[in-house]
Amino acid sequence: MVLMFLNGGGMRGGPLHGQLQGAPLCCVARSAPKYRYFSVGDRFPAMYEGGTGSVVGEVYDLPLTVLRDHLVPAEPPELELGVVELEDGAACLATVLRSSFVDSPELTDITEVGDWRAYSASR
């Protein structure tokens, strides 16, 4: 089992939520204020360490087999697994933006919003 911080399509109501295979929601949380947050072509969000923003997400208790067989294969190639810091200092797995995509013209900085659902609702 692993704690996984989801901040996009894997959250409740999102198109990837079914990939969690019923894994339990532990809590709604925020990241520590040390990230940049992007919309990638208005298709999905991506966190990247090195900013001052905090990101809203959900923490799930996820079996590693579900991560391996369902969630990771459903993620876009711009993202990779990483470890993020939550607001309370806890470490959590998450998908983060690959360094090779940081300069992509598809990125829109949404750090000030810090919430994929709020950003999507404003579109």
From TrEMBL:
SUPFAM superfamilies (alphabetical): Gamma-glutamyl cyclotransferase-like (SSF110857)
InterPro entries: AH_C, GGCT-like, GGCT-like_sf
All copies of domain Allophanate hydrolase C-terminal, residue ranges: 3-120
Signal peptide residue numbers: none
Name used for this protein in its record: Gamma-glutamylcyclotransferase
Species the sequence originates in: Amycolatopsis regifaucium
